[in-house]
Task: structure prediction
Amino acid sequence: MRREEILVEIRDVMADVLGIDADAEDVTEATTASDIEEWDSLSHIRLLVAIERKFKLRSRFTNSEIESLKRVGDLVTLIEKKTSA
Result:
């Protein structure tokens, strides 16, 4: 799966979980939680669980992986890694 395809899927999940309009202009690889008012610590956990389900990841995100996520692009890279393994 290509980065852009992953980003589109992440936008869809974010729209559902955060209740936002996550179109292409709003959510980019540079987007951080501080850019989206609805993205707090609780919604972050809900978002990651929803992404694990959406991408049918065999291994869940580890604490260190979660801590390393600073922007949406980091999440795209992590999903690329987990889906190619």
